[in-house]
Amino acid sequence: MKRTLAILLANPLSLLGVVLVSVVILSAVFADFIAPFPEHSGAVVDFANFNKPPEWPYIFGTDLVGRDMFSRILYAYRISLILGIVVLAIAVPIGVTIGLVAGYLGGWTEYLLMRLTDVFLSVPPLVLAMSIMGVLQPTLANGMLAVTAMWWPWYTRLVYNITRGEKEEGYVLAAEVIGASKAHIIFREILPNCVPAIITKMTLDMGFVILIASSLSFLGLGVQPPTPDLGSMVADGAKYLPDSWWLTIFPGLAILIAVFGFNLIGDALRDILGAEQ
Amino acid sequence: MIPLARLLAKRLATSLIVLIGVSMLIFAIARIIPGDPARIALGPNATAEQIADLRAALHLNDHIVVQYGHFVADVARGDLGVSLYTNRPVTADIALYLPATLELVLVAGLMMVGIGLPLGIWSARWRGRAADNMIRLVSLLGVSAPSFVWAVILMLLFAFYLPLFPIAGRISDSYAISSVTGFLLIDTLLQGDVRAFGNAAWHIVLPAFALALSGIGQAARLTRANMVETYDKPYIEMAQSYGFPARRIANHYAFRPSLIPSLTIIGLDFAAMLGNAFLVEAIFAWPGLSRYGVAVILRKDLNAIVGTVLIISATFLLVNIIVDLLIALLNPRIRYSQRPA
Amino acid sequence: MTKSLKLLSIAAMASTMLATAPLSAQAGGVLRLDEVAVGELDPAIASDYADSILMFNVYDTLVLPAQGAPGHVPHLAESWEGDGTSYTFKLRDDVKFVSGNAMTAEDVVFSLDRMKAMGKGLSYLFANVEKAEAVDASTVTFTLTKPYAPFVASLLRLPIVDKQTVMANLGEGEGEMKDWGAAYLTSTSAGTGAYRIVSHNPQEETVMEKNPDYFLGVPAPAPDTARLRYGLEAATVRTLIAQGEHDIASQWLPPEVIKALAANGAQVLTESGTGAFYVKMNTTKPPLDDVNCRMAFAKAFDYGAAIKMIAVTDTVSQGAASTGAVPVGMFGANPADQVLTRDLEAAKQHLAECKYKPEDFTLEISWIAEVPVEERFALLMQANYAELGVKSEIKKLPWALFAEQVSKPENTPHLSQLFVNAVTGDPDTLLYGMYHSSAAGTWQSPEYLNDAEVDKQLEAGRTAATPEGREGAYAALNARLMEIAPTIYGYDRQSVFAASARVKVPALSDPSKAFGLDGMGFTFRLMEVAD
Question: Which end of chain B is more exposed for a tag (fewer CB within 10 A), N or C?
């Protein structure tokens, strides 16, 4: 663990990733202290200062009802991170369990579970999430649900492939010989060997969940105002291009920075943990 | 070629099962969207009697399993029902809008392969050097923003501040192209109108590039990773020690084995692109399936929702079968290991 | 392999190079405009603004609104007379459909029958019309079930279709009339209009061209071709106009965008007088079932800020200050200088008298997803009512879902924001559908108002025989609606269109040429296109 961190900090690219992600997390956690206008995360209107280009004290400009874009972006990071964490916290255990069971048990169980996975994988992710969001009221909780529904199959695929390889390995066969239960073999013997791959994918996915959630918001199927949300900001701002460019460009860059940071770390982790395996 | 045919048959059968699963999934989702589709379709001033008639005509009062039965029977006849939104058969609507989306996604796919693979090859060849780091950084950036952000940035830069490309649409108004395939790049050539072809190509560059950017990054990263792995293999080291030109080693010995995993990912990326096309089409006013898809979901247009998702999924499965066959053709080991279980 | 890949990318780049050579689009005589919604070509289904533009150009009606004045003038009809329940129209005998068939009384009868039988779109305007009969080839009589003063105005919404052509193109359906030609008429037109359909793709664009045989003739400077495109993004329209590739933008561009275009030399066209922006309160749901709570919210609304939000330039705005329930210019309206203003003290007093306490409820403020400016009004109200100590939540609803939810009072949000206009220009078509107790629960009546006095004045307004009688009824109605406050009367609406300098549209720029009916200003034959 320590060694992994040391390698991460030694490489300039992954160091950049650590810095970017730290900035994002710190802005989200300490938004109350950093934001010049914390109350602008909610329903505040200030028509004396609306649609202002970046200028002091509004370093990222103001939106169409006069709220500080910089403050809103900080609070939007909070929403994005919560969404990413919750989605992965639900999707990963489900996906991993199904993958382990299908990979280890084989036979009809495998066939049914993997075809089910294929069904979810063969609807383009965004289209599936859109269909689900069309059913539900657009709220943060439902947004998470929709993204979760399309996310678990990727972990099933990943773990399934590893499990199929591992189950022929000596230590698994040995455990079978001494009569260990199936649950024991799946969760105590095989699962630990999948962990590095799962962690790498989770780091990468943290970025992609933020990305897909912002895409949903972009289509109007995301978090509701006045809650600040990066995807909705880009979508709403895009109507005012090119004149009020700050409404779109800053939230767009904010998405880019967060996703880029997680990708840099995930990439480095893949190299490190992959090499150790 | 017999094993290949067998592989094809097997993949087609699996895809059919998956497609049936997709239809059930999406059918169930479409039926639980809140709101009465009949009322929405008939508009605000409809009478209770008109709504009841339409509900009966749509079998909405039956059990969902019975409804699904009606649906399957219709699909078997090639009928996806009538859209409540456009009052036209769903198949006609999809036939009208799908080609534009497919054209966009296919051109983006070509860009992904045509730009992403060479970038990956260069990156691997110069691994560890500045060029490699640049390419890695750029391709990671490409993956790191949603395609709608790229679309907005590209439009702002290259259609507004520097008006090099058109801002919207598929072709300029002055060209009248009769639709044969629905693919403008093909239809213009069929008419022998080279200027119209150029105009259509000029229109597709920005939206396709916005759509392809994340795929280009993905393809470059993957190709690089796979080639770096291959570079460590003994036969490459041998070729190097014999003094083969680096270019020849890269293009011939290292690239070919790396192509197979890259192709698999390209197949998967195609699915993402079919979805992301929804975002890009909105910004470039591209008259594809996206506006239709979003509109029918919001309007709870049952037949159209099910039809659209089904067609998109079928397209995706088809592409993956083609990719699988390509891989099998490229790799004899896979080709011959497909024995019936 | 790589070589061919390289070739491919080179080929792709070459084709783009080749294409960047200027391909200047020939703009001679082409009018390019856009609308947000999908265009519906069937006269029996058409209802919204985009549809109206199509109807007013490819079809004709018996009468037209007088320009710059109240009342109606003959069009397909030469003259008419009526006595409350029976109207007789004498038709012109020189009018031909684009098919070449002559327009006769039979076609008028068929058009009404078709509208009523299909029961869609604006057919409810003809609910009081019992039947139409052809007396002879050029005379048609309408019989009403009861007196209906706005009847002649409602004929503006009865496009006359070509019976013979439709009968020859009936699609699948049950009964003698099958589908009434619905499949045929959604894709093409069968009218007498100054323009005829070249192509129609409901999601992309409708292309129309001059009808050389139009009975009034189409002036030469009028556009030869009109391309009406649907669903363009605001940023796209803004850029297209700036680059000289678009002529008239839809009214749904945000005010900031119109402002930017005007600053770059675009002209600003306006159309006004038939509608308003309303915030409708669900009077069946606590706390809005108490008139004092409603009054509190009406008084606390910041009317001045709302007007400021929709200002386009110093002189043009998307709305004028509201004076009451009836827009200025209609029967019964209050004087234009008697504007509503915010009164927070009065609001607090009303709230204190309301039987519900602010801590006991959360107000749902909805906005229609398709109309982005409503989000800002929602935020404005949220901030305004927070000053009263009232909590609220904002709810975004796609139009279709909204129209469905309002059919039940318990699903209808507390506050619904709506732009409503008189579809025939007559106050009856604005107010009856919103406030009569029998019309409750449609998209325009989420108040669920049930008030005997309101019902009485609405009936009086539509049956009064003289203009003075109607004026009196609507003035009384206005007073009553202010007293019971079912609605926050936001502002009187004005549609604002950004347009390129190469078009002249007198009906949208010269008040003496204005029609006083939404969409009629887009009569292409009265426009001029340079070059």
Answer: C
